[in-house]
Each structure stands twice: as C-alpha cells, then as structure tokens.
Write a structure and sequence with these properties.
The protein is α+β, with helices and mostly antiparallel strands. It has eight helices and 15 strands. The chain folds into three domains: 65 residues, no CATH class; 93 residues, HSP40/DNAj peptide-binding domain; 116 residues, HSP40/DNAj peptide-binding domain (Sandwich).
Length: 332
C-alpha cells in the first residue's frame, strides 16, 4: 500500500481533535499542549464545540477521514516487478513490438488467493471487513477477526501451501516507440505481483537496455555513423551511400575535398523523439582510405594533401590535387 506520507499526521490530528470534543479531561490536556506550543487560538475550536451544527460537521469530517484512511489498508496490494530487457540498436531506432514471458506470483486458483483450504465470508463482519463503532455514528473500524479482509477459513490450501500466491509464467506484449533511450522504463499496469483480498495488482516495469553498435553511436537524438571513402572520392566527391540502422539506404551527395573527421549532416534522419514528431540528424563522419601500396614519397604526398584538406576544410591547392591524382592514376 502506498500511503500518503501526510496521512499519519492527518490521522493523528483528526483523532486528537475528536478526543478533545468528546472528553473534558482530554480537552484540558489538549488546551495545555496547544498553549505551550502557541498553536492557533483555542477559542475557535471551542466555538465549534459549542455550535451543534458546526460540531456535527466537524465530527462528520473526522469520521469520513478516519474511514477513508483505514479502508485503504483492506486489501493486500501486489508489488511491482522489474524486468530488464535487451533491445538491439536497430530496435531503438525503428521501434518494436516485443513479446516476453516472465515469472510472477498470481493468485492461487484453488483458494482464490486466500490461502485457506475452505473459505467463507467472515462471521464477525459478514465479509465487509469493517465493523461499526457504536459510540460514534458513521465510524467504522477494521474487523479484528479477519484483519479487514472479510474472509475467514479453515485449513491450509495444499496448492499454494497457504501463501495464496503461486509463481506462474506470464506473457505480455509491449510496443516500444522509435527513439527510446537506453534505460527507458515502461510501466505495464497490473502485470506485476497479484494483489490479494481485493488489493490492486502490481505493475511490471520493463527496463530497456539498448545494446551498443559497432557501426553507429547515438548522441542525444543524432545518429552518428562513420563513412570510409577512397582517395578518388575524397578528391572528386560523389554520392556517398549510407545505410541507416533500419537497413534503408541514404544517398548523400558530397562535393570533392573530403577530409578525415569531416562531418556531413542529413537532416531528419536521426532518432525520433518518442513523444513528439521531432527527429535528430544523421551525422556522417568521413574517413579517407589511402591505398596500401604507396611508395614513401607517394605516401608523403597523400599525407600532405590530407593535412592541408583538414586545415583548409577541403580547400586544397589545385597543384597538390593534381599531384595526388597522378598517384591514384598510377595505382588504378
Ligand atoms: Zn471480519
Ligand atoms: Zn491456494
């Protein structure tokens, strides 16, 4: 049961105020305590105590409050369950429908969750779980015989050994929206541990652990991918073919003068926000492959070109470009 932390305080206040109105001795003690604490003036409370209508209203409010508080404790609520679930990088990009099986305690069918071999409505409260407090009209209290559950019984259920719950394999399906981040938690209402005696069923919390990818990285909503191009493409440009995590091809036209570490963006091809339509960008980070079998002077020339391209952001002198082209032609 998840009680409001203020409930205890409210309960105490209400119970206190009720005693004050009904018991003269307690009233004197209350007065003394209130005065000591310099609490709000007592006259107000005394005025209420002397006005029958106001007193009736106050008593009724207190009774309602007490009933509401104690009724919450009637059933046994089931706990929430945590289920970690591995999601592939591609699934986090496209979204997915996942089906899973997991073990959870459910109400025993033999005894309907009571744990008794035979059970019936409690004889004392007639199954209501509550008893009327005769001295105070309208006020009820928890039945001491059944502990508020309203159920009595004999013997122990052999099926669940008196526990009322049995571990059972359950199946569930969840829709994972595209763009979910690592560690996202989904709450499946009522799929956790079963409640007993009318208590609510707990929830299943599915924690999504997104697997890493060798090809891609994620930065907020942006999807980052490295693209290796050969020297010829780096010099002259071309259409770069990029594969997005869902397997679809993205054609990215690039001008010549590509250099290692250069970032090209494709708007709107990153991760979608799971809650809005906004999408991040696909960011392509360029890497340039130079031929393996270069002579030392050729390798120096290529290195010089790559350095200059990086520094000038692709604006390389035509003479240097022409020299590198001659190297490439020789290799082709
Ligand atoms: Zn009872
Ligand atoms: Zn049972």
């Amino acid at each position: 049961m998840s009680a409001d932390p203020n409930d205890h305080r409210r309960f105490a206040e209400a119970a206190d105020a009720y005693r004050v109105l009904s018991d003269a001795k307690a009233r004197r003690a209350y007065d003394a305590r209130r005065l000591l604490r310099l609490a709000p003036p007592l006259d107000r409370l005394m005025n209420i105590a002397e006005d029958p209508a106001a007193r009736a209203r106050m008593v009724s409010r207190i009774v309602q409050g007490l009933n509401k508080l104690s009724q919450r404790a009637q059933g046994n609520d089931g706990h929430d369950l945590l289920l970690p679930w591995d999601l592939t990088f591609a699934q986090s990009y496209t979204g997915a429908e996942i089906k899973f099986s997991y073990s959870r305690p459910l109400r025993c069918g033999e005894c309907d969750g009571t744990g008794f071999r035979t059970h019936h409505a409690c004889d004392v409260c007639g199954g209501a779980g509550r008893l009327t407090v005769r001295a105070v009209p309208g006020l009820t209290k928890r039945c001491p015989r059944c502990g508020g559950h309203g159920v009595a019984g004999t013997g122990r259920c052999g099926n669940c050994r008196g526990r009322g719950l049995l571990r059972t394999t359950s199946h569930a399906t969840a829709r994972i929206p595209a763009g979910v981040a690592n560690g996202t938690r989904l709450r499946l209402k009522g799929h956790g541990v079963a409640g007993r005696f009318g208590g609510r069923d707990g929830d299943l919390i599915v924690r999504l652990d997104v697997e890493g990818s060798l090809q891609y990285t994620r930065d907020g909503r942006d999807l980052i991918v490295e693209k290796s191009v050969d020297l010829e493409t780096a010099l002259s440009g071309g259409v770069l073919e990029i594969e997005s995590p869902d397997g679809r091809a993205v054609d990215l036209p690039a001008a010549g003068g590509l250099y290692p570490g250069q970032r090209l963006g494709v708007a709107g091809r990153g991760f979608p926000s799971p809650t809005t339509d906004e999408r991040g960008d696909l960011i392509v980070v360029i890497d340039v492959r130079s031929p393996a079998d270069l002579a030392p002077d050729e390798r120096r020339l290529v290195a010089q070109w790559l350095d200059q391209a990086r520094i000038t952001r692709g604006q390389v002198s035509p003479a240097l470009v022409a020299s590198v082209r001659r190297v490439i032609r020789k290799k082709a």
